[in-house]
Specification:
With 312 residues, this protein is mostly beta strands. The protein has a single domain, classed as Thrombin, subunit H. 12% of the residues lie in helices and 36% in strands. The protein has four helices and 18 strands. A six-stranded antiparallel β-sheet has the order 3-5-6-9-8-7. Strand 11 and strand 12 form a beta hairpin. The chain starts with a helix and ends with a helix.
């Protein structure tokens, strides 16, 4: 199969997905485990993605490591590059399977993110931090740093199968490193309470898709997206994934594997961390569609707790 044929199959796959999802007959199997290249490696599914508007060149969302060096994955694992993303891809692209290399490509899959806010301290989400082991190391600029302690907010009210994201509380955590990070400027916290209607920038790493079809590709690259803060309360900064023409220029949302990633606001002094990614309310729309609501823990509500932990 030539490059043109593969591209044609891919385009048909995208169109067919859009038809299925738009008709509300999306197969339940499409949210099952992705199909990987043949291997004896253990398979584990963690969805992580940056979903963007469908009518903008995807390359505009790419972020170089130098752009936001303080934002990093705090939990990663090596995973084989997916040949087909899900059961729909497997149905539509069977001719790709025989061409799989005997030694499959791998990439670093992100299971959660964090932001360096002081040389010794990383800010993340509680639901990410509870999965970390104290023996884990976190890399900044290819240098691993050992963890000293992991501090979960004492009033973290976690998820359950019957609980809505809006019912979660205090999804925030701090990770202290054994040694200060060198050569990386921490990002300050946003200390104002005027977040409403401002446009935030998301930084995330993981699977990739658009608001028409949801997650569809995997490449492990860092991306950025923007979104307006539509609602605020004591716990949350809340965003809606708008379709054009109401969308921001680089409109997008994050996903589960990007838990702990920041919502950044631009200030006169530079970027500041205003929120930490907690989750999404997709209602009946399906994850990653236009119209879903994104929830970020509101940093300005937690300043006293954060400062009390990090004080000398």
């Amino acid at each position: 199969m030539g490059d043109r044929d593969i591209k044609s199959v891919k385009m048909f796959s995208i169109a067919y997905r859009a038809f299925l999802r738009g008709s509300n007959v999306w197969l339940s199997a499409a949210r099952q485990k992705p199909v990987k290249s043949p291997s004896k490696a253990r398979q584990k599914t963690i969805e992580s993605f940056m979903i963007i508007r469908h009518d903008i060149e995807p390359a505009l969302h790419l972020s170089s490591p130098a752009q936001f060096p303080a934002v990093v994955p705090v939990d990663t694992r090596q995973q084989e590059v997916l040949v087909v993303y899900d059961d729909i891809d497997q149905l539509l692209k069977p001719s790709l399977l025989p061409a799989v290399q005997s030694v499959p490509d791998v990439y670093a899959r992100c299971d959660g993110m964090g932001t360096l806010i002081q040389p010794l301290w990383i800010l993340s989400a509680a639901h990410v931090a509870v999965e970390l082991a104290i023996s884990h190391k976190i890399e900044f600029a290819n240098t691993p740093y050992a963890i000293q302690q992991i501090i979960i907010h004492p009033d973290f009210y976690t998820y359950s199968s019957h609980r809505e994201i809006s019912e979660v509380q205090n999804d925030i955590a701090l990770i202290q490193l054994q040694h200060p990070v060198q050569g990386i400027a921490p990002l300050p916290l946003y200390r104002q309470t005027d977040e409403l209607r401002q446009t935030a920038t998301f930084v995330g790493q993981g699977d990739f898709g658009t608001g028409l079809i949801g997650p569809d590709q995997v490449d492990g690259k860092m991306r950025i997206a923007t979104n307006r803060i539509e609602k605020v309360d004591d716990q949350w900064l809340i965003f809606k994934f708008d379709a054009p023409p109401e969308a921001t220029e680089l409109e997008g949302i994050s996903g589960p594997g990007d838990g702990g990633s920041p919502a950044l606001l631009k200030t006169a002094q530079g970027w500041a961390v205003a929120g930490v990614r907690a989750g999404q309310d997709s209602a009946r729309l399906g994850e990653g569609y236009y119209g879903v609501w994104e929830y970020y823990t509101r940093i300005s509500h937690h300043l006293d707790w954060i400062d009390s932990i990090m004080q000398p």
